[in-house]
């Protein structure tokens, strides 16, 4: 922020007077300074002439020469007013504001109002630099409550200067530039953007240092394209742009979904940021480059953004190994572990960071986010509410706090399927639909809520249509990765009233089990329901989850139908993610299933034995995203070898295509179409269907 005043003279003029950039010796005659310098009565150069040359040197952009000349004059003419003014101005130009201010207060120079205004602006610039350094120092010490005080004082100073300076003066213009920096540092981003756009409207060219602050403000206000443009201009204008500016440009590219450009930028940052800073003296050992750790953390985040969770974890583990007590490294490791679904492991890591730095913002936010994933709701509340009060402008804190507040609202979810079949009538009929609607209350007493459900199933068969309507009410509790629920349902809660009970628990980061039972189960075939039959369901499920990319599930079930038929089934599936990038994920799913019915001779589809072995490919394409808004296209293709006792084997085929819209932070909509072809009792049934679903917080 060192400001130099260029007043019409060229650098060439300075070079003509002092070609090598050096002054003549102290005892040199007046002629050594130029033919226009008169000798003084004491044999020295005339003080007024030399002071005038010093001021011209300063105005021509050579404050070091100007300072040397002015102080040379003051050695033998301490009362020379021009030399004193030039000395103070040159010190200010060079950024030595504190010394310049002491001299100004001591000698009270008589200079024009414009010069005084420029000097006052310089003093405030020094205060800004101090305020920025103080903010960083207090951040490192986790003294967040006082970190803004110095900058808040400089903002008041800037506002006072603007009120006193002439509106079109250089001092007023520079004060407006400096004010952009302070507004950004104080998280007053909207005001910084408004002031910048006002400057642009006035046709004022904003310097690079102020453009960087405005770019930060645009990024914070979720305008990444404008931010990226400004960051790029700053980088092009500076010979060695800071890591902070280049990092801001990286985030702007990521948030505007320009991942390829972000990758190239990160590669440049990585190659230009060594682990050690060399020293001029080769015998002196190098010193660590603190910026390297910033780059390493950025690479961990970059891998996470691209859904390369294993790479992110490997980088985080290496970083934490090299700096085992570094809180930033520990927090990065906890974030990488959580991205892999290892919430218990991440909890231990986060507790380590909190032990080293209990007031650290990142450690506390990690604790809150991990408590959310682990469903430790009292801890989540205890961590996020003080954070939200202390850091209201932190986007990550604000988002997590909003998610906590969502628990105080009703939520609604629904899913429906509508189908039409050709060639068979055994299972789905010629037409069918079903939908489920559920309204959830806010959570109360920490981890309880009640809900109401509506379930409707309908199919048109050759012999007539069958329909089932069930309304239900229930209560559930979810806490510390345990979940139980109980519900009653029936036709207007008068006929065929049934009970559902369930329990689910994660034993650790790898294993989960679930137990469920239903009387009057909705899984009873509709044709059986039409004959006043009912079924009682018993189901157990075991899930093994290695990480975000691999999971296996084993399900055992039995449906005891009131006609004496016991339908027992066993199924297993393995999901393996085979490809992942920032916008694409592909999964391969292998499945096996077997079903046995104890009484196959029934009026509903009920073969004695069924077997199936299949494979499916699913792909999600994140086509468009803008913060809380996104469109994902979903594709799936599946094929299976299906065997039915008495009819032999046949190939089953399935294909679906759909869209998932993230409409807001809390509302999403999904819809799609699908096609399936399967053999039932030797007849090939082809079915087209559509589906529509939504969920959100009221």
UniProtKB/TrEMBL annotation:
Residues 425-687 form the PgaA membrane beta barrel domain. InterPro entries: PGA_export_porin_PgaA, PgaA_barrel, TPR-like_helical_dom_sf. Pfam families: PgaA_barrel. This is Poly-beta-1,6 N-acetyl-D-glucosamine export porin PgaA. It comes from Salinicola rhizosphaerae.
